[in-house]
Structure formats: C-alpha cells, structure tokens
Amino acid sequence: MSELNPKQREAAQFKDGIAAVIAVPGSGKTRTMMERIGILVNEYGIPPEHILGLTFTRNAAEEMRSRLVPVLGNLSSRVRLSTIHSFCLHLLKSEGRVFEILSGKEQLIFIKNVMKRLRIKDLTLGTILREISLAKNNIIDPTEFKDLFYGDKTMMQVANIYESYEEAKSNKLLLDFDDLLLEAYYLLRDNDAGPISSHAMSKKHSCRPKSHSMFKTVRLFMTVGRYAACLIICV
Ligand SMILES: Nc1ncnc2c1ncn2[C@@H]1O[C@H](COP(=O)(O)OP(=O)(O)OP(=O)(O)O)[C@@H](O)[C@H]1O
Ligand SMILES: [Mg+2]
C-alpha cells in the first residue's frame, strides 16, 4: 500500500483526543482513518472496543467496516463503527429512554399541523425545517431562538412554530433526527468534558463541521463514554 502523505500521517498518528478529518471527496479521509485505527491498536495498544468511528451516512459506516478488515483482521469487528445518529439512538435507548423517531413524511405532516394550529400560512415547510434544524444543531432552544431574533417578524413566526413543535413532540414522546444528537448531548452534559482537538487534513479543503452539537456530543462520548478515540468522517 502506498504511503500516507504528511497531512494524512499527522492525522493518523494523532494520539489523544478527537481526530476530525474533514476534507474534499476522494482525498483519502477513509484511508487515513483506517490507518489511524491500525496505529491506535497496533502501536498505541488501545483496545479495539475503546475506539468509536462515527460517520454521517450509513454507506460510509459500511465502507469503513469493510476497509478496516485488511488493517485489523479479526480485531476489526471489535471496533464500534456507526453513523452518529444511530450511535446516539443506541445510547439513548440503552439509558432506558422511551421514544419513537419522527422523520420523513410524518415529520412534515406534524409540522403542517403545528402551522395550522398557529394559523401560519406564509412560510414554506423547507424554511421552517431548515431554521429549526439549524437552531438545534447550534443548541439553541426555542426561548433562546426568540431572544436571538426578537423584532424579526418572520423569524418570530418560525420561533413560535419551533416552540409548539417541540411541545407537541415531547407530549407524544417523539424525537426527530436532530433531537437524537441533542438528547445524547443533554444526557452526557453534566459530566466533565475534556478539550476537543480537531484536525483538518488541509485548511484549504476543509469544510465547516456540520454541526456544533455533533462535536459537543462526540466530545462527551470520549470523556463520559470512555472511548479512547472518536473518529469523524465528513462526507
Ligand atoms: N496517500 C495516498 N496515496 C495513494 N493513494 C491514496 C492515498 N490516500 C488515499 N488514496 C487512495 O485514494 C482513493 C480515495 O481514498 P478514500 O476512499 O480514503 O477517500 P475519501 O476521502 O474517504 O473519499 P470519499 O469522499 O469518497 O469518502 C482510494 O483509492 C485510496 O486508496
Ligand atoms: Mg470515505
């Protein structure tokens, strides 16, 4: 196998903390992370079950699984590889939380009903979904959202929908996908969190981390969940 380039090597050999590899498609993120897992286990002596590999998509998680086999052989099945959402789901369920997921069409209908109840007609579902998701990914609750956008008529309408949506969901024990991350974050929040170290393979090519709550949640996985290494692959 060809050598990693210097930036890839730096990410692969990074020892303590979270290595977030964020780079353009096809630039070698998965390759780097697989090498990294190999180094953590074979050189740094970290037990494979103390390693958590997180991705955004199921495909990327499956790809990691198959590409880890040549690196670790039998040990590869002991590394926890998952999408961040399914890991949060697992965490919440294992803590005994009772809820159903609200997603897709059902989520749209749910928000439409909230809008109907509030008699709001002049906002598109797309705008509402986007704004609510953005708020949640920045850990902004409806009260903070209102303070933030005080005086902006449109955003106050979004805020009212956001507030009613959260209330209605909570009454029915429903969580949307963004809630999975947020709830996992809240669950772990009261524990001490160590410093977060992110590593971009190339500043020029780096993109903004998808979500603030994701990083906070991952950081908590490492400290509270006692995972030695969290890996994020941005796809
Ligand atoms: N340093 C390197 N030298 C030679 N080939 C490399 C190097 N780094 C990555 N590659 C090759 O480049 C291809 C893309 O790598 P990889 O799949 O790891 O990228 P990726 O960033 O994860 O891609 P995607 O965005 O599609 O998930 C692979 O065939 C990989 O083996
Ligand atoms: Mg990849």
Automatic annotation (TrEMBL):
InterPro entries the record matches: DExx_box_DNA_helicase_dom_sf, DNA_helicase_UvrD/REP, P-loop_NTPase, UvrD-like_ATP-bd
Keyword field: ATP-binding, Helicase, Hydrolase, Nucleotide-binding
Molecular functions (GO terms): ATP binding; DNA binding; DNA helicase activity; hydrolase activity
Record-linked Gene3D superfamilies: 1.10.10.160, P-loop containing nucleotide triphosphate hydrolases
Binding site for ATP: A23, V24, P25, G26, S27, G28, K29, T30
SUPFAM superfamilies with a match to the protein in the record: P-loop containing nucleoside triphosphate hydrolases
Stretches assigned to the UvrD-like helicase ATP-binding domain: 2-235
CDD domains, alphabetized: DEXQc_UvrD (cd17932)
PANTHER family, per database record: UVRD / RECB / PCRA DNA HELICASE FAMILY MEMBER (PTHR11070)
Protein name: UvrD-like helicase ATP-binding domain-containing protein
